[in-house]
Amino acid sequence: MKNILEFDSLDLSFDGRKILSGIYMVCQTGEVVGLLGRNGSGKSSLMKAVFGILGVEHKSVRVNGVPLQGDYNRKRIIAYLPQGKLIPSYVSLRTAFSLFKVDIDRVTSVVPQVKDFVNLKSNELSGGSLRLIEALLILYSPVPFCILDEPFTGLMPIHIETLKSIIAKSKHGKGIIISDQMHRHITELSDRLFLLSNGKTYEIKERERLFELGYLHSL
Amino acid sequence: MRIVLTFYRNFLWPVLAISLFGCWLIWIYGSWQYIVLVFWMKVITNTLLGLFIHIFSPDQFYFFNNLGYNKIRLYVFTFFLDMVIWFLLSWLTIKILL
Fold first, then answer.
1. Are A96 and B65 within 8 A, CB to CB?
2. By CB neighbour count within 10 A (0-12 exposed, 13-18 middle, 19+ buried), where does A61 fall?
3. What confidence category does residue A212 fall into, taking pLDDT thresholds of 50, 70 and 90?
4. Which of A14, A5, A25, A30 lies closest to A168, judged by CA?
Protein backbone atom coordinates (compact mmCIF):
# COMPACT_ATOMS: atom_id res chain seq x y z
CA MET A 1 0.00 0.00 0.00
CA LYS A 2 1.27 3.45 -0.90
CA ASN A 3 1.37 6.18 1.73
CA ILE A 4 0.81 9.75 0.66
CA LEU A 5 2.17 12.82 2.42
CA GLU A 6 0.51 16.06 1.35
CA PHE A 7 0.83 19.57 2.65
CA ASP A 8 -0.77 22.83 1.70
CA SER A 9 -2.31 26.05 3.09
CA LEU A 10 1.03 26.70 4.73
CA ASP A 11 1.55 30.32 5.69
CA LEU A 12 4.68 31.73 7.26
CA SER A 13 5.80 35.32 7.76
CA PHE A 14 8.87 36.83 9.41
CA ASP A 15 8.67 40.48 10.53
CA GLY A 16 5.60 41.03 8.38
CA ARG A 17 7.34 39.61 5.30
CA LYS A 18 5.48 36.70 3.73
CA ILE A 19 7.90 33.77 3.38
CA LEU A 20 5.51 30.99 2.46
CA SER A 21 2.00 31.04 1.08
CA GLY A 22 0.21 29.06 -1.58
CA ILE A 23 2.22 25.93 -0.94
CA TYR A 24 1.11 22.59 -2.24
CA MET A 25 3.29 19.51 -2.39
CA VAL A 26 2.64 15.82 -2.38
CA CYS A 27 5.02 12.91 -1.90
CA GLN A 28 4.13 9.27 -1.95
CA THR A 29 6.10 6.23 -0.95
CA GLY A 30 8.17 5.02 -3.87
CA GLU A 31 9.18 8.45 -5.10
CA VAL A 32 11.77 11.15 -4.60
CA VAL A 33 10.41 14.67 -4.66
CA GLY A 34 12.95 17.41 -5.28
CA LEU A 35 12.58 20.91 -3.91
CA LEU A 36 14.62 23.67 -5.46
CA GLY A 37 14.75 27.32 -4.60
CA ARG A 38 17.11 30.23 -4.22
CA ASN A 39 18.90 30.92 -0.95
CA GLY A 40 16.45 32.35 1.53
CA SER A 41 13.41 31.26 -0.45
CA GLY A 42 12.07 29.33 2.54
CA LYS A 43 12.98 25.73 1.67
CA SER A 44 14.38 24.91 5.11
CA SER A 45 11.47 26.65 6.84
CA LEU A 46 9.04 24.66 4.73
CA MET A 47 10.79 21.40 5.60
CA LYS A 48 10.86 22.23 9.32
CA ALA A 49 7.19 23.17 9.24
CA VAL A 50 6.25 19.90 7.56
CA PHE A 51 8.40 17.95 10.02
CA GLY A 52 6.50 19.73 12.77
CA ILE A 53 9.19 21.71 14.56
CA LEU A 54 8.53 25.18 13.17
CA GLY A 55 5.40 26.96 14.24
CA VAL A 56 3.60 28.54 11.32
CA GLU A 57 0.47 30.66 11.14
CA HIS A 58 -1.42 27.97 9.36
CA LYS A 59 -0.70 24.62 7.77
CA SER A 60 -2.31 21.41 6.73
CA VAL A 61 -0.13 18.31 6.69
CA ARG A 62 -1.86 15.05 5.88
CA VAL A 63 -0.84 11.42 5.58
CA ASN A 64 -3.23 9.34 3.50
CA GLY A 65 -5.75 12.14 3.86
CA VAL A 66 -5.59 12.17 7.68
CA PRO A 67 -4.43 15.52 9.12
CA LEU A 68 -1.36 15.44 11.36
CA GLN A 69 -2.06 17.62 14.35
CA GLY A 70 -0.37 18.62 17.58
CA ASP A 71 3.00 17.09 18.41
CA TYR A 72 2.99 14.57 15.57
CA ASN A 73 6.75 13.95 15.85
CA ARG A 74 5.84 11.37 18.47
CA LYS A 75 4.24 9.19 15.81
CA ARG A 76 7.54 8.98 13.95
CA ILE A 77 6.07 9.27 10.48
CA ILE A 78 8.68 11.65 9.12
CA ALA A 79 12.46 11.62 9.61
CA TYR A 80 14.29 14.88 9.01
CA LEU A 81 17.90 15.59 8.11
CA PRO A 82 18.53 19.24 9.04
CA GLN A 83 20.82 21.51 7.09
CA GLY A 84 23.21 21.62 10.05
CA LYS A 85 24.43 18.88 12.33
CA LEU A 86 22.08 16.06 13.33
CA ILE A 87 24.01 13.88 15.80
CA PRO A 88 25.00 15.73 19.02
CA SER A 89 28.71 15.71 19.80
CA TYR A 90 28.26 13.60 22.95
CA VAL A 91 26.52 10.73 21.13
CA SER A 92 28.49 7.87 19.58
CA LEU A 93 27.48 6.64 16.16
CA ARG A 94 26.68 3.21 17.60
CA THR A 95 24.23 4.80 20.06
CA ALA A 96 22.73 6.93 17.30
CA PHE A 97 22.14 3.90 15.05
CA SER A 98 20.66 1.98 17.95
CA LEU A 99 18.29 4.80 18.99
CA PHE A 100 17.15 5.29 15.40
CA LYS A 101 16.64 1.50 15.12
CA VAL A 102 19.00 1.32 12.16
CA ASP A 103 20.89 -1.93 11.61
CA ILE A 104 24.63 -1.14 11.50
CA ASP A 105 25.32 -4.21 9.34
CA ARG A 106 22.89 -2.91 6.74
CA VAL A 107 24.76 0.38 6.65
CA THR A 108 28.23 -1.18 6.55
CA SER A 109 27.17 -3.46 3.71
CA VAL A 110 26.57 -0.34 1.62
CA VAL A 111 29.27 1.93 3.02
CA PRO A 112 32.00 -0.31 4.53
CA GLN A 113 33.95 2.69 5.92
CA VAL A 114 31.23 3.21 8.53
CA LYS A 115 32.66 0.17 10.39
CA ASP A 116 35.77 2.23 11.25
CA PHE A 117 33.70 5.09 12.68
CA VAL A 118 30.98 3.29 14.55
CA ASN A 119 32.51 3.68 18.02
CA LEU A 120 33.45 7.31 17.50
CA LYS A 121 31.45 10.32 18.57
CA SER A 122 30.13 12.71 15.97
CA ASN A 123 32.71 15.41 16.78
CA GLU A 124 35.54 12.96 16.06
CA LEU A 125 34.57 12.57 12.39
CA SER A 126 35.29 14.77 9.40
CA GLY A 127 32.37 16.93 8.28
CA GLY A 128 31.88 14.98 5.04
CA SER A 129 31.92 11.53 6.66
CA LEU A 130 29.53 12.70 9.36
CA ARG A 131 27.14 14.17 6.78
CA LEU A 132 27.05 10.88 4.86
CA ILE A 133 26.41 8.89 8.04
CA GLU A 134 23.68 11.29 9.18
CA ALA A 135 21.97 10.99 5.80
CA LEU A 136 22.12 7.17 6.07
CA LEU A 137 20.70 7.34 9.58
CA ILE A 138 17.66 9.20 8.27
CA LEU A 139 17.25 7.15 5.11
CA TYR A 140 17.41 3.81 6.94
CA SER A 141 15.12 4.90 9.78
CA PRO A 142 11.95 2.81 9.92
CA VAL A 143 9.66 5.68 8.91
CA PRO A 144 7.59 6.06 5.73
CA PHE A 145 8.83 9.57 4.83
CA CYS A 146 12.23 11.29 4.89
CA ILE A 147 13.02 14.96 4.45
CA LEU A 148 16.61 15.73 3.50
CA ASP A 149 17.76 19.32 3.69
CA GLU A 150 21.02 19.83 1.77
CA PRO A 151 22.30 16.25 2.18
CA PHE A 152 25.18 16.74 -0.28
CA THR A 153 26.76 19.67 1.56
CA GLY A 154 30.39 18.90 2.35
CA LEU A 155 30.40 15.49 0.67
CA MET A 156 33.24 14.54 -1.67
CA PRO A 157 32.17 13.48 -5.18
CA ILE A 158 32.46 9.74 -4.52
CA HIS A 159 30.26 10.06 -1.45
CA ILE A 160 27.75 12.12 -3.42
CA GLU A 161 27.46 9.26 -5.92
CA THR A 162 27.15 6.72 -3.08
CA LEU A 163 24.43 8.76 -1.39
CA LYS A 164 22.56 9.26 -4.65
CA SER A 165 22.50 5.54 -5.28
CA ILE A 166 21.31 4.88 -1.69
CA ILE A 167 18.54 7.48 -2.06
CA ALA A 168 17.45 5.89 -5.33
CA LYS A 169 17.30 2.47 -3.65
CA SER A 170 15.69 3.74 -0.43
CA LYS A 171 12.70 5.19 -2.22
CA HIS A 172 11.31 1.69 -2.61
CA GLY A 173 9.15 1.64 0.47
CA LYS A 174 9.42 5.28 1.47
CA GLY A 175 8.80 8.76 0.18
CA ILE A 176 11.74 11.15 0.13
CA ILE A 177 11.67 14.94 -0.10
CA ILE A 178 15.06 16.36 -0.92
CA SER A 179 16.45 19.83 -1.29
CA ASP A 180 19.95 20.95 -2.21
CA GLN A 181 21.66 23.74 -4.11
CA MET A 182 23.34 21.10 -6.30
CA HIS A 183 20.32 21.21 -8.58
CA ARG A 184 21.69 18.75 -11.13
CA HIS A 185 21.80 15.97 -8.54
CA ILE A 186 18.30 16.85 -7.39
CA THR A 187 16.97 16.91 -10.93
CA GLU A 188 18.58 13.54 -11.67
CA LEU A 189 17.21 11.90 -8.55
CA SER A 190 13.71 13.32 -8.51
CA ASP A 191 10.61 11.65 -9.82
CA ARG A 192 8.85 14.94 -9.28
CA LEU A 193 10.37 18.38 -8.97
CA PHE A 194 9.10 21.55 -7.33
CA LEU A 195 10.54 25.04 -7.27
CA LEU A 196 9.89 27.34 -4.34
CA SER A 197 9.77 30.91 -5.54
CA ASN A 198 8.13 34.00 -4.03
CA GLY A 199 6.66 31.80 -1.29
CA LYS A 200 4.85 29.52 -3.73
CA THR A 201 5.62 26.07 -5.06
CA TYR A 202 5.64 25.40 -8.78
CA GLU A 203 5.75 21.90 -10.15
CA ILE A 204 8.51 21.70 -12.72
CA LYS A 205 7.88 19.40 -15.65
CA GLU A 206 10.39 20.88 -18.05
CA ARG A 207 13.82 22.27 -17.32
CA GLU A 208 13.02 25.47 -19.22
CA ARG A 209 10.59 26.37 -16.45
CA LEU A 210 13.53 26.75 -14.01
CA PHE A 211 14.90 29.38 -16.34
CA GLU A 212 11.53 31.10 -16.77
CA LEU A 213 11.03 31.28 -13.01
CA GLY A 214 14.48 32.79 -12.55
CA TYR A 215 16.15 29.88 -10.76
CA LEU A 216 18.70 29.31 -13.54
CA HIS A 217 20.43 32.00 -15.61
CA SER A 218 20.81 29.75 -18.60
CA LEU A 219 20.05 26.21 -19.63
CA MET B 1 14.15 5.80 28.62
CA ARG B 2 17.41 5.39 26.66
CA ILE B 3 16.60 8.54 24.75
CA VAL B 4 16.13 10.54 27.96
CA LEU B 5 19.32 9.05 29.43
CA THR B 6 21.22 10.07 26.29
CA PHE B 7 20.02 13.66 26.69
CA TYR B 8 20.68 13.56 30.45
CA ARG B 9 24.32 12.61 29.83
CA ASN B 10 24.69 16.01 28.20
CA PHE B 11 24.61 17.73 31.59
CA LEU B 12 25.15 14.84 33.95
CA TRP B 13 28.16 16.25 35.80
CA PRO B 14 26.76 19.61 37.00
CA VAL B 15 23.43 18.14 38.12
CA LEU B 16 25.14 15.18 39.77
CA ALA B 17 27.47 17.59 41.58
CA ILE B 18 24.42 19.39 43.07
CA SER B 19 22.90 16.05 44.12
CA LEU B 20 26.15 14.98 45.79
CA PHE B 21 26.39 18.36 47.49
CA GLY B 22 22.91 17.69 48.94
CA CYS B 23 24.09 14.28 50.16
CA TRP B 24 27.14 15.90 51.73
CA LEU B 25 24.88 18.36 53.64
CA ILE B 26 22.81 15.42 54.94
CA TRP B 27 26.02 13.63 55.92
CA ILE B 28 27.50 16.66 57.73
CA TYR B 29 24.34 17.78 59.55
CA GLY B 30 22.85 14.33 59.99
CA SER B 31 19.35 15.36 58.94
CA TRP B 32 17.06 16.23 55.99
CA GLN B 33 16.90 19.89 57.10
CA TYR B 34 18.57 21.21 53.91
CA ILE B 35 16.46 19.18 51.52
CA VAL B 36 14.22 22.11 50.54
CA LEU B 37 17.27 24.28 49.89
CA VAL B 38 18.87 21.57 47.72
CA PHE B 39 15.57 21.01 45.92
CA TRP B 40 15.44 24.67 44.86
CA MET B 41 19.12 24.58 43.94
CA LYS B 42 18.32 21.67 41.65
CA VAL B 43 15.33 23.44 40.13
CA ILE B 44 17.43 26.53 39.45
CA THR B 45 20.46 24.67 38.04
CA ASN B 46 18.26 22.47 35.83
CA THR B 47 16.46 25.56 34.51
CA LEU B 48 19.75 27.37 33.83
CA LEU B 49 21.23 24.34 32.08
CA GLY B 50 18.06 23.97 30.01
CA LEU B 51 18.27 27.64 29.03
CA PHE B 52 21.95 27.26 28.20
CA ILE B 53 21.24 24.35 25.84
CA HIS B 54 18.24 26.15 24.38
CA ILE B 55 20.34 29.22 23.57
CA PHE B 56 23.78 27.84 22.72
CA SER B 57 23.15 24.35 21.43
CA PRO B 58 19.63 24.17 20.02
CA ASP B 59 20.64 22.05 17.00
CA GLN B 60 20.86 18.92 19.12
CA PHE B 61 17.06 18.91 19.41
CA TYR B 62 16.74 17.79 15.77
CA PHE B 63 18.22 14.46 16.87
CA PHE B 64 15.64 14.03 19.62
CA ASN B 65 12.78 15.37 17.46
CA ASN B 66 13.54 12.54 15.06
CA LEU B 67 13.19 10.12 17.96
CA GLY B 68 9.76 11.50 18.82
CA TYR B 69 10.76 13.81 21.69
CA ASN B 70 10.14 17.54 21.55
CA LYS B 71 11.96 19.99 23.83
CA ILE B 72 9.28 20.08 26.51
CA ARG B 73 9.00 16.28 26.82
CA LEU B 74 12.79 15.99 26.98
CA TYR B 75 13.14 18.66 29.67
CA VAL B 76 10.28 17.29 31.77
CA PHE B 77 11.43 13.65 31.62
CA THR B 78 15.04 14.63 32.27
CA PHE B 79 14.06 16.76 35.26
CA PHE B 80 12.08 13.89 36.77
CA LEU B 81 14.92 11.46 36.13
CA ASP B 82 17.33 13.83 37.87
CA MET B 83 14.95 14.22 40.81
CA VAL B 84 14.64 10.44 41.16
CA ILE B 85 18.44 10.03 41.11
CA TRP B 86 18.85 12.81 43.69
CA PHE B 87 16.16 11.33 45.93
CA LEU B 88 17.75 7.85 45.76
CA LEU B 89 21.20 9.25 46.55
CA SER B 90 19.79 11.23 49.51
CA TRP B 91 17.89 8.20 50.78
CA LEU B 92 21.04 6.05 50.53
CA THR B 93 23.02 8.68 52.45
CA ILE B 94 20.43 8.66 55.26
CA LYS B 95 20.42 4.85 55.29
CA ILE B 96 24.20 4.70 55.63
CA LEU B 97 24.19 7.45 58.26
CA LEU B 98 21.59 5.77 60.42
1. no
2. buried
3. confident
4. A30
Structural domain harbouring A38: 4-212
pTM comes to 0.91
Asked if the Cβ–Cβ distance from B67 to A100 is below 8 Å, we say: yes
CATH code of the domain covering residue A113: 3.40.50.300
Interface touch A73/B70, C-beta < 8 Å: yes
Is B70–A53 a contact, with Cβ atoms under 8 angstroms apart? Answer: yes
Q: Do A53 and B2 touch (CB under 8 A)?
A: no
Residue A59 domain-assigned (yes or no): yes
What value does the mean pLDDT of chain A take?
A: 91
Q: Please check whether residue A141 touches B, CB under 8 A.
A: yes
Distance CA A34, CA B4 (A): 34
ipTM: 0.92
Mark A142-151 as b/e (b = at least 16 C-beta within 10 Å): ebbbbbbbbb
Distance CA A186, CA A98 (A): 29
Q: Which residue does chain A place closest to B65, by CA atoms?
A: A73
CB atoms within 10 A of CB B67: 20
Q: Is residue A219 part of a domain?
A: no
For chain B, the domains span 2-97
Lowest mean pLDDT among A8-17, A26-35, A177-186: A8-17
Q: List strands edge to edge, sheet with A145-149.
A: A78-81, A145-149, A175-179, A32-37, A192-197, A200-204
CA distance A45 to A126: 27
In a domain, A194, yes or no: yes
Q: Which amino acid is at B37?
A: L
Residues of B with CB under 8 A from a CB of A: 2-3, 6, 9-10, 57, 59-63, 65-70, 73
Number of domains into which chain A is organized: 1
Chain B CB contacts of A88 below 8 Å:
10, 57, 59-60, 63
